[in-house]
């Protein structure tokens, strides 16, 4: 097995965002704006803005390339217009702090925009991360680490995993077994054949005589 991967459910996303919302409220910190890190923090940020009744919602884009980050192992900030947060209390949100590089990069950039106060949050915090957020729903130690496949990147991640592991054209059931063996993924609540056919429609996979190939 190369590494463990876990398909994250929407029920888990809702639970984690609810936990963060409660922590923020109980802390006494009252955000005036929320910034989601693009792409992983966009959906959680929208969910938190709804739970916390915050209308000012912005995005800051940080980039990693696939499973190995950028070519030199560093996160990259993509400027797309500065959020209007001067003098405001800001909550920054991402899906996970794994290496911590994306959050640290975003934090330093957001700080340069002169907010009154910044607090950071992630649904999941990996203990090895170099950056520890103020709020998080679950802490994951090294022994329980897995590559978390969130609903908003399920196609990208499965396409990458299939490309790594599928050697010959394979049926849907063969691919399910391959991914279980290599990454310990459970597809109990996921329609894998539907996902595979969507990958075919988007040109990421080929289908011939019931067999999928890259």
TrEMBL record:
SUPFAM superfamilies listed in its UniProt record: PRTase-like
UniProt keywords, alphabetically: Glycosyltransferase, Transferase
Gene3D superfamilies xref list: 3.40.50.2020
The organism of origin for this protein: Oxyplasma meridianum
GO function terms (MF aspect): glycosyltransferase activity
Location of the Phosphoribosyltransferase domain: 10-154
Name of the protein: Phosphoribosyltransferase
Entry keyword annotation includes Glycosyltransferase: yes
């Amino acid at each position: 097995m190369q590494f463990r991967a876990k398909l994250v459910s929407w029920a888990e996303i809702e639970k984690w965002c609810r936990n963060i919302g409660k922590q923020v409220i109980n802390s006494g910190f009252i955000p005036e704006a929320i910034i989601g890190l693009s792409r992983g923090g966009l959906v959680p940020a929208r969910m938190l803005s709804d739970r916390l009744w915050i209308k000012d919602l912005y995005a800051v884009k940080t980039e990693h390339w696939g499973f190995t980050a950028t070519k030199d192992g560093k996160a990259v900030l993509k400027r797309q217009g500065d959020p209007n947060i001067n003098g405001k209390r800001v909550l920054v949100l991402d899906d996970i702090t794994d290496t911590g590089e994306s959050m640290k990069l975003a934090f330093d950039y957001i700080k340069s925009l002169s907010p009154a106060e910044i607090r950071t949050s992630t649904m999941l915090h990996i203990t090895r991360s170099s950056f520890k957020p103020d709020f998080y729903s679950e802490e994951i130690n090294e022994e329980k680490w897995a590559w978390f496949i969130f609903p908003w990147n399920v196609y990208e991640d499965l396409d990458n995993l299939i490309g790594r592991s599928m050697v010959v054209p394979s049926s849907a059931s063969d691919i399910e077994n391959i991914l279980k063996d290599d990454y310990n993924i459970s597809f109990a609540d996921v329609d894998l054949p539907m996902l595979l056919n969507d990958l075919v429609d988007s040109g990421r996979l080929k289908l011939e005589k019931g067999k999928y190939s890259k």
